[in-house]
Give the backbone structure.
Amino acid sequence: MSSAILLKIGNDLASERSRLLSFSYDLATIKDIPGLRHMLKQYLKQLLRISAYLITIRNAHDNTYGYFLHDGPADDPKVPIAPHMTAAVLRSDEPVTFPGNILGIRLKAAGEDTGILWLRAVKFDRPLLKGISAQIAISISNVVSCGEIERQMEEIHRYKRRLDSEKHDLPEEPGANDDHRELIGAGPEMQKIYLAIGQVALSDSTVLILGETGTGKELIARAIHGNSNRKNKRMIKLNCAALPVNLIESELFGHERGSFTGAVDRKIGKFELANGSTLFLDEIGELSPDLQVKLLRAIQEREIERVGGKRTIKVNVRIVSATNRDLQKEVAEGRFRSDLYYRLNVFPIFVPALRDRLEDIPLLVSYFIQKLAEKTGKSVTGISKKALDHLMKHNWPGNIRELENCIERSLLIGTHPVIERVELPGFGGLLSGNVGNGAICKTLHENERDHIIAILKKCKGKVGGSGGAAEILDVNSSTLNSRMRKLDIKRGRFIEQTEHE
């Protein structure tokens, strides 16, 4: 075979891979049927060279399969399906062919059947078809779940409007706004989260969000507020672990001028700022016992007093709080008041760790690549299968925040349009010691800084050129200089060290 033919085959494979990656990442953002229809029309005929397609989905109530989406007029699907064809496809994990150049393949998400993709095609690439069907299955699951949440929220809203109309004392509220754009995931654990948001958002009930650090608790709080009747006012946030104990009371309730040293002006606290809106109290488990008492009174009485003030101020505030602590254990050990705990724990939402929802990692990676490529100015469009497999095998002690940091680091140090390699504890040597033996896992920034310093020592401070740190790290020298400035690494001290060694 000539080199020209081999080159053409290589170019065709690269082009097909690029289109498949584009299809995968574009599909991950779809949350409605029109968007899915547009995406399938754009990509399916390019990738599979088909003449028509049809998707049937499973009805969970009676386990039957009905038309969901197809390429053609709404009342004229181009791929006729008989019951025996559906049964045959559901018995196989491979594509099944039928007379008339029709084939069907099961669509499964999180281990469950979601539907069947039907195609009319003379030839097809079996591995490519299976990869595409897996992506379509996840997208359909996402679209269906979002639609179900919208229907539930609209039903709740209609019921509330009817009650309000009967009382004649409250104006009608505008339609509910589905604001889950920052929440990424289509697996069963995330479906529970979406359902919980739909159940509680339109009420004024107090919500307690529980989960490990980095799982996205603040995003849940934003989604609850964004779908509530208070959404037209800004959600106010206070991180209870970010301020000294003597300042948190002032942040929460405000203070009067001269109430303590340094109080040169009156300060409006978070409770007053959140009047008519939502107050998100992050890391609520870090509150001191005396502040727990004052917070409990504010929630119970719906009134506050500024520090140094002499009058009470009525407030209408919805409380959403979050913690990575086990509050039941904190109560049992006397570090958290039981009465405050029961006030906060009206509607608990547990956010699972990333290691318990690994099926969402491809969607999260796609989202972070798109988001961070713009932030970092990198022309990165995807990730290799090998790198994605590494991500799927990691235990993620830092959860989604760790994953986002990993993708940002990979973008910064990479030189290709596709992420070929990721550095993770257990894969890239970023772990100080062995997990499970009391070792400390450093942050990505700490590991990056230590790694660059080690290379600079080895290169005696030389950054560019042959044998320089940039060459060893496989990055552009200007990129490395930029990272050194950001991480406060001074090249000169390594030159001085080597001169005196």
